[in-house]
Amino acid sequence: MSAPAWIKIYVTDWCPFCKALIRYLHNRGIYNYSLCDIEEDYRCAEELLALTGTPGVPVTYVCNYRISGFDQLELDRVFGPGRF
What we know:
Domain Glutaredoxin: 7-62
Radius of gyration: 12 Å
CATH class: Alpha Beta
Protein name: Glutaredoxin domain-containing protein
Pfam family, one: Glutaredoxin
CATH superfamily: Glutaredoxin
Number of strands: 4
Number of domains: 1
Organism: Candidatus Kaiserbacteria bacterium RIFCSPLOWO2_01_FULL_53_17
Helix content: 25-40%
Distance between the termini: 8 Å
């Protein structure tokens, strides 16, 4: 299964919702994404603050569409069957 053209996820290493989101993607065969750890790379933190105004994670961008948090209903809608 291929992934959408562009998936970027802002995370931290200790965040349980970030880990749940990554498990969710892997369970759907989606491995083609970019992780941006806001604690490991200050540019990621600055980017996330500029985009959302808050350092809360996870935040997922699929192309220019934002999903804040681990919202399984929204993820199912975006990554559901026939969506990509």
